[in-house]
Amino acid sequence: MTMATPEMTARRRRARAGWLLSTPALVLLLCGAAGPLLVVLVFSFLTKGGYGGVELPFTAEAWFRIFFQRDIFDGTVSAADAHIQIFWRSVWLSLATTLITFVLGLPTAWFIATRPARTRTLWLFLITIPFWTNLLIRTFAIMEVIRNEGLLNSALLGLGLIDQPLQILFTDTATLIGMAYVYLPLMVLPLYAAIDRFDMRLLEAGHDLYASRWALLRRVILPIIRPGLVAGCILVFIPALGAYVVPRVLGGGKNMMVGNFIELQFGQARNWPLGAALSMMLLLVVMAALLVYVRAMAQEGRDD
Amino acid sequence: MTQGPAVEAQSVVKHFGDGPDAVRALDDVSVTVARGEFFTLLGPSGCGKTTLLRCIAGFETPTAGRILLGGRDITDDPPNRRRVNTVFQSYALFPHLTVAQNVAFGLQMLGRPKAEVRATTDRMLALVRLDALADRRPDALSGGQQQRVALARALAPQPEVLLLDEPLSALDLKLRKEMQSELKRLQHETGITFVFVTHDQEEALTMSDRIGVMSAGRLLQVAPPRDIYNRPVNRFVADFIGETNFLPATAHAGQIRLRSGEVLGPTTVSGAITVAIRPEQLRLSDPGDHEAIPATVEGSTYLGTDSHLHLRLPDGSRVVARIPSLPQAEPGPAPGMPVGLRVAPGALQVLED
Ligand SMILES: Nc1ncnc2c1ncn2[C@@H]1O[C@H](COP(=O)(O)OP(=O)(O)OP(=O)(O)O)[C@@H](O)[C@H]1O
Ligand SMILES: [Mg+2]
């Protein structure tokens, strides 16, 4: 018993030192993450000011306005179709982006992971090169490719495959192309990390046990690299949901995503509470998506 | 046991790379393994055992030659179309599946009905005595248990041939002995043809119906363990299997003599030869024994039940004799002591080099 006392004191001292050492991180987290969120949350429950900004009193009007609209003349309430449409477009564009990046990213990551160690670093470096360039510039580059007089259309016209330029720019397709391009590395890198750890001998074992290539992919590869797969999907889906630059430049003014709509509220529309409420809404959708993932992971872990 | 061939390799050649620096991993290997046989490929590291196994399994395509399974040419079939299963040296168990799911995998891929898959899986788990661990993941198993799962998984689809690539090399000695008899039992109970790879000669001798000794991509001798041990075809085989004394000798007029003239035994060949004698085929006798070869003791090594006695012969060559160890109190032959040496009848092996 007497022996335990100095040891316990030491442990307590270590614990206190641990807290002390993590103070900078905690302060940073509080100020950097929780603080601004709190501000946004408060704003979403305030009244909009005449020239932007917010004023008292507290109200849930902004939250109400996300889903419903009041007729200016007779005050009847109806669903805010435009808002719901924007949310819906954001979700499906993000899901489609996730799917496209997965379909393109899996073979890419596989290719890199199966290169000899020497060239692998080079391929990884090539994948990360886009990160070195400003997002806006990359987006304008895509614009240059897909606009009516751009590379793609000129090539297709030149080859005689089409006789009218394809109107891709300022459509959802353009946004999709842009987002798939921008977020592809975020899918490739976690997939690569997972495939790198994958024991290739399992492929021979599966092949030996009568699995076709397709069965190998479905029954052996995908289940084993799932952590990387899930990480990739989260890393692509969440930023895609809040994308701003790509839909703004490539989607044009009409094909807004939530990010653009929020910007509109803080800018031209001068409706800060609505912008704040929309931001919180976006956060809730993201958290719901994360929750679904986590649940799915835990579930499958138990099922197998 | 022998009802036609289970698997045949016909003049199989396998090169890795091309040009002058290609590795000749298999150099014209032909062998026929009978149905229900326990066939062992034995040879030093890098001699091509794994390569031959991989050619049979379908992971490698032979540069030349054919592989036949039950008389049918399967040289161009992919692994999933060959009724052959492999027990990998690394086990290669699926980490995301339970023991039972691992065992069921092959049957599911073959599209067997659910009820049959479950029944066969249960039977296989019982066969390798793993019923209690059916729901564990492979990473929660010991090496020996993983080994058993790998076995059950490969046996479950009832392949025509089971290939085992050094399946016991990762186990400690005691477990290894246990698994050796376990393997024999499994082979007996399932009646499946086993092609077993090892570089452990003792393992090969105790387990096999027949052994194929390989060296540098060639199959040197295929024979039952007794014949491999007692009638090795060449110096390599004699040296690789068990311990052997090699003596330069001359054969003349039906007699083999040491270079110094002492008669070793009868023969039918003539000329300069090498003879091989196993240490346990040499017997000690009195120094005065006229029919024995006079020898001088140089030293001894205690092995437990037996001892190795190092001797020098009149022609200067050295041999080792394996003799029963004497009780502690009795002094053994001391260095420098003259002894007589007799060769057991029929123990002389005349070798081509
Ligand atoms: N994929 C390959 N590429 C090039 N050379 C190879 C390849 N696989 C095997 N070899 C060579 O072929 C020869 C035979 O190899 P193999 O693996 O069959 O030997 P082994 O008898 O199984 O040896 P061990 O007992 O060490 O497992 C070796 O010289 C090896 O280096
Ligand atoms: Mg090998």
Automatic annotation (TrEMBL), chain B:
<keyword id="KW-1278">Translocase</keyword>
<dbReference type="InterPro" id="IPR050093">
    <property type="entry name" value="ABC_SmlMolc_Importer"/>
</dbReference>
<dbReference type="InterPro" id="IPR027417">
    <property type="entry name" value="P-loop_NTPase"/>
</dbReference>
<protein>
    <recommendedName>
        <fullName>Spermidine/putrescine import ATP-binding protein PotA</fullName>
        <ecNumber>7.6.2.11</ecNumber>
    </recommendedName>
</protein>
<keyword id="KW-0472">Membrane</keyword>
<comment type="function">
    <text>Part of the ABC transporter complex PotABCD involved in spermidine/putrescine import. Responsible for energy coupling to the transport system.</text>
</comment>
<dbReference type="InterPro" id="IPR003439">
    <property type="entry name" value="ABC_transporter-like_ATP-bd"/>
</dbReference>
<dbReference type="InterPro" id="IPR008995">
    <property type="entry name" value="Mo/tungstate-bd_C_term_dom"/>
</dbReference>
<keyword id="KW-0813">Transport</keyword>
<keyword id="KW-0547">Nucleotide-binding</keyword>
<dbReference type="InterPro" id="IPR013611">
    <property type="entry name" value="Transp-assoc_OB_typ2"/>
</dbReference>
<dbReference type="InterPro" id="IPR003593">
    <property type="entry name" value="AAA+_ATPase"/>
</dbReference>
<dbReference type="Pfam" id="PF00005">
    <property type="entry name" value="ABC_tran"/>
</dbReference>
<dbReference type="Pfam" id="PF08402">
    <property type="entry name" value="TOBE_2"/>
</dbReference>
<dbReference type="GO" id="GO:0043190">
    <property type="term" value="C:ATP-binding cassette (ABC) transporter complex"/>
</dbReference>
<keyword id="KW-1003">Cell membrane</keyword>
<dbReference type="InterPro" id="IPR005893">
    <property type="entry name" value="PotA-like"/>
</dbReference>
<dbReference type="GO" id="GO:0005524">
    <property type="term" value="F:ATP binding"/>
</dbReference>
<dbReference type="GO" id="GO:0016887">
    <property type="term" value="F:ATP hydrolysis activity"/>
</dbReference>
<dbReference type="InterPro" id="IPR017879">
    <property type="entry name" value="PotA_ATP-bd"/>
</dbReference>
<comment type="similarity">
    <text>Belongs to the ABC transporter superfamily. Spermidine/putrescine importer (TC 3.A.1.11.1) family.</text>
</comment>
<dbReference type="GO" id="GO:0015594">
    <property type="term" value="F:ABC-type putrescine transporter activity"/>
</dbReference>
<comment type="subunit">
    <text>The complex is composed of two ATP-binding proteins (PotA), two transmembrane proteins (PotB and PotC) and a solute-binding protein (PotD).</text>
</comment>
<feature type="domain" description="ABC transporter">
    <location>
        <begin position="7"/>
        <end position="241"/>
    </location>
</feature>
<keyword id="KW-0067">ATP-binding</keyword>
<dbReference type="InterPro" id="IPR017871">
    <property type="entry name" value="ABC_transporter-like_CS"/>
</dbReference>
